[in-house]
Amino acid sequence: MNYKKISIASVAVGMFAAGAAFAQNAEIATWSGFRKAAVSFTFDDGPQSDVDIALPMFDKYGYKATFNIVTNWANGGNSGMLNWDGVKKLASSGHEIASHSDSHPQNGAMPSSEIASSKGTLNQKVQQKYGVITLAYPNCNTPGDAQVLKNYVVGRICNASWSGGSDIMGKDGPNNWAAVAAMMTGNQGTSDFKGNMDKAVNQGGWVAFLTHGFTTGSNGFANYSPTDAKGMESSLQYAQQKDKDIWVAPMGFVAMYIKERKASKIEPQDGGAANTMSFELKHNIADNISKYDYPLSIRVKSDWKKVEVTQDGAKLESKVDGGYVYFDAVPNAGTIIVKNANAAAPESSSSAEPPQSSSSEVASSSSNGTIALPTQSLDGRHLAAYVDASGYITVQNAQGLNITVFNSLGNVVRTTKGLGLEQKVYTGAKGVYVVKIGNRAWSLKIK
Ligand SMILES: [Zn+2]
User: How far does the chain reach from its first CA to its final CA, in angstroms?
Assistant: First the structure.
């Protein structure tokens, strides 16, 4: 199997009160959601087509990409290139904004002084939960690995195969975090997104793509190896169909996940009450770049039919499936408690609090295949949100409105804009969510 397996059987003996289910194993998933592979889409140079073509495409499927920005170009005045307003648009949809130098020299490596200065400028201009953690090198040339790794979680080159390496990385990432590979897409590179994603799934690894502009739209300086937008979109559709296997996430987030997973231990704690199991999830990664607080996917063996999982007292989404409890938790963020909910009051564990917004009313909840009633009116529209039979959040009549999905901790897990009469909003995991459309809200449960 694909998981980092930590046997805790030896320390679990005698730990729990009689009658409690014993934790035999707690495992950290190789990839988020216990999927089989990770896929990252990265875009270089910051052309206008990032906002005009890539942004709506990725938002439609609820996936996040990495946009590598040249700060001097974003300062404005370059035909076909984004200015800071455009970059902020990408960031406000939850995409990763990363560095691609200040000056982008035509040949050779970027000046090493720009390793830190480009990051500083981006952090000043754009608010991001994890800050600027990724650097993509202009012309694929590293300005100095050691210097890069003092400032970034990950430095990106281009095709590893151009210098004899492999473009599909293993589950533990590259040998050198200052040389993460990405496959060039377009007419100078690959158009076979699906084939390469399948390879990553078969190998249990990670593949990243590197795209400049598209064959259509306004691409400014990003005119090398234009990529067919339709081909890219069909690959997102494909990833969505294989959501159980494929984790699509920005390069910096996948890098954080790998580093945290390799460094973290999940360990049972002593003294739990009957019908509870408690765990610590910890790592001691020491650098000044990141807190490495991206959530890790965990499963714990249990024969309980219904559970409630909390971390530091706050509820986590969880599911029970095949003799395991599944949930995502943040390392170094407090004790995780898994509680047998059938031992407590029934039906007490599955309602989400709405996000902290007094203006929103939570309409109702629905399970898969049921339309939540009532619909809510907003400016003459009849808005609806429900979970369809396949387990996807679906909204209706929300064209042009902001759609935000919160988890039960109140954290935003997806943001997008309403496009068609009916639209699916992908969460990537089961659990209880609050969906806000404009200032209306629904509580939905994905089973
Ligand atoms: Zn470039």
Answer: 24
